[in-house]
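Sample entry copied in:
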Amino acid sequence: MRIVCIGAGPAGLYFAALAKLSNKKHDVTVIERDPTGVTYGWGVVFWQDLLDDLYRSDPESAQAIAREAAHWDTQEVHIQGKRTVHVGGYGFSLGRDRLLDILLRRAQSLGVEVQFQREVENLSEFADADLIIACDGANSRTRHLHGNPFQTHIELGRTKYIWLGADKAFDTFTFAFEETPAGWIWFHAYRFNRETSTCIVECPQETWQGLGFGQLGPDETLRRLEDIFKRHLDGRSLLTQRHGRGRTQWLHFKRITNERWHHGNVVLMGDAAHTTHFSIGSGTKLAIQDAIGLARQLRAHTALPAALSAYEEERRTALLPLQNAARRSAEWFEDVPRHVEQHAGQFAYALLNRRGSHARWRYLLHLANQEAALRGVLRGIHSARGWMRSRRLQRSARLLGDV
């Protein structure tokens, strides 16, 4: 089969590797319009379920990702100088550039051809392809090269956000909320290596306007945000990217849905097919799981139309709970000014509970997390469970390698 992936993000590179693992005779090419090594974004966050999927699908790349990923085992909520509230939970993070490098090397080692700095102007360039995968992101050009066959719908969020880095390593997943004369503004931050963190700043449109961000240049924007969040940054700097497709800018989140995910021999994957609000940290996870799902359906069906239909049905069903959770999460953050007058502990629990109702025991666990001794015990339990699961996955990977 001749396969072309348009977009060298996690979805495209991982699918390309899986396609070659499924059948080394597949002719797989990945097309990327940017130069090699150029990517938009800082670190990505993911959870144990994705790591499990990676080990089941390709132990070699899974081990490389697990080796380099940073790990955090608690969350902190800071509200305008009030006491810090501790929220349970653990996860992993990795620099997006490092993740792409691991996936690129793996794909190339399996015989995938990757072409950088190539713009796709017309799908007729790939008339010999059996399958074309549009995995070129939320702003996918491929979706619209021939009208709107996928019936794409885009809904804009109400808040403004900017995706930055920070030269401070936040050891916990950190939420910080600050009130300014123009209104509330907050960030979500997590480290992805020993020195650097992702820092996503968000605020209502009115706050953004009142603070004058529409008139500020990149450097002035960073300096103003550093001043607002100085108590959390410890004198460290915020960072922006000025390479690739342009400098980082304030955005409205785009919730993207498509009535159809495939048209002829073209199929959508990752953010080109769907987006979920960044506050639930699932974009990379869902893109890679799309790749796994499509590879599985191509193995299960001899006819391409049947495989694409099965892929769409499977992934739509899997996505629905997360899409609903992401919508609730986005709406909660859009209403931060209404929630933030609560007691700090209640506010933090509402933040934790923003995706939907939790069982009563979750509130009791939240209260336990506020006691340092109990928090240490809970973190120890999480750490032990994570270590045991990691060892089990590594043993399974070694056994698969011996087969």
Summary: The mean pLDDT is 89. The longest helix spans residues 304-334. The longest strand covers residues 183-191.
